[in-house]
Design goal:
Helix 7 links the parallel strand 3 and strand 4. Helices cover 30% and strands 9% of the residues. It has a four-stranded parallel β-sheet with strand order 1-2-3-4. It has a two-stranded antiparallel sheet with strand order 5-6. Strands 7-8 form a two-stranded antiparallel sheet. By secondary structure, it is of the alpha/beta class. The structure holds zinc ion (5 copies). One zinc ion binds next to helix 11. The site of one zinc ion has 8 residues, from helix 11.
Length: 329
């Protein structure tokens, strides 16, 4: 890595410039050492970076910029997370995916609300080798558009698509799901082997990307409400009968441990998330209201210098308001 020279260009690819300058990172200081080809391992690593990080890497030095611009390998897995999702249009998506020269293997679009059925269709037509397709939260897509794209992939290579994630696309019903399943390698044996999915790990922003899930398809028909939704398993030893397996609308779950919590038995957290009694007892509490944060929201608390504890954001806001009231601001 010591041989890299800094890039002098302002963008990895002028065609992608409309994604805006925010993805650019600090350009490294110039080095006078000779240029060498990027190590193969580095190219492999590039292939697993989300689009934002891939574009940022191309700003680090000339070698990485050239690798990103000229090699196909970094573009075989296109992952667009929230950093760029709101800016990704059909046209940019088509340009980005065209860099794989028809060999795109993973297309993971998270909350890409500008992507349309037509954009997805065009990508599916030109990239028949896609085997992982994640479209979670792409709310402009319709069930019919997703079915068309999956069918296009299946027509080229039957059952080559091994993972499909569509949670967050509106109006998917049982019939859509059934049609989608017919294009995927789903059989009883494989379904039984599907890994358990726990609410707390799914919701944890630090857990690996959901597009890496081993489930063939992320949503299923909740047996309780019969809607097509994410259905969670219960990690509690005492829940082996799986009666509490269901979507988050039907079964309330603890943010910390993913265990089912009966309605009326939930403990209040300072962040308004639901906690079970066991988790509530273990977590540090606000000095004022005695409510804990779940681990995801711990950073919302304020440490009081005179105490080892913290004050939650709600209590702090109330305190500031009372000061303002007293001073008649
Ligand atoms: Zn349900
Ligand atoms: Zn719990
Ligand atoms: Zn349970
Ligand atoms: Zn509080
Ligand atoms: Zn929380």
């Amino acid at each position: 890595m010591s041989n890299y020279q800094p890039s002098t260009s302002s963008s990895a690819d002028p065609n992608l410039g409309s994604l805006g300058p925010e993805y650019r990172t600090q350009v490294a200081e110039p080095e006078s050492e000779p240029v060498s080809v990027p190590h193969e391992v580095m190219l492999l690593l590039l292939a697993y970076l989300p689009l934002y990080e891939l574009l940022a890497m191309s700003q680090v030095c000339v070698l990485l910029r050239d690798a990103v611009n000229e090699e196909v390998l970094p573009w075989l897995n296109v992952v667009v997370d929230r950093t760029l999702s709101s800016r990704l249009t059909d046209e940019i998506l088509i340009k980005v995916t065209s860099k794989a020269n028809g060999r795109l293997a993973t297309l993971a679009l998270m909350d890409c609300v500008k992507i349309t059925d037509d954009g997805l269709r065009r990508v599916a037509e030109t990239n028949p080798l896609i085997n992982k397709l994640c479209l979670t939260g792409c709310t402009r897509l319709t069930p019919e558009g997703v079915i068309r794209a999956v069918k296009t992939l299946s027509d080229h290579h039957p059952h080559s698509l091994t993972t499909l994630q569509i949670n967050g696309i509106y109006d998917i019903n049982k019939h859509h799901l059934q049609t989608l399943r017919s294009f995927l390698p789903l059989n009883t044996e494989l379904q039984l082997k599907q890994p358990l999915l726990f609410y707390h790990t799914y919701r944890n922003p630090k857990s690996p990307g959901h597009w890496q899930s081993l489930r063939v398809i992320d949503v299923e028909v909740c047996r309780l409400c019969e809607e097509v939704r994410m259905v969670f398993d219960c990690p509690r030893e005492s829940c082996k009968r799986r009666e509490c397996r269901g979507c988050s609308f039907c079964i309330q779950r603890c943010e910390e441990c993913g265990g089912c919590v009966e309605y009326g038995e939930e403990e209040e957290a300072a962040c308004s998330d639901v906690l079970c009694s066991a988790c509530w007892l273990q977590l540090p509490k606000c000095d004022v209201c005695n409510k804990p944060y779940c681990k995801t929201h711990t950073s919302l608390g304020y440490s009081a210098s005179a105490s080892a504890g913290f004050i939650c954001d709600v209590c702090r806001a109330k305190f500031i308001q009372s000061l303002c009231d007293d001073l008649e601001f």
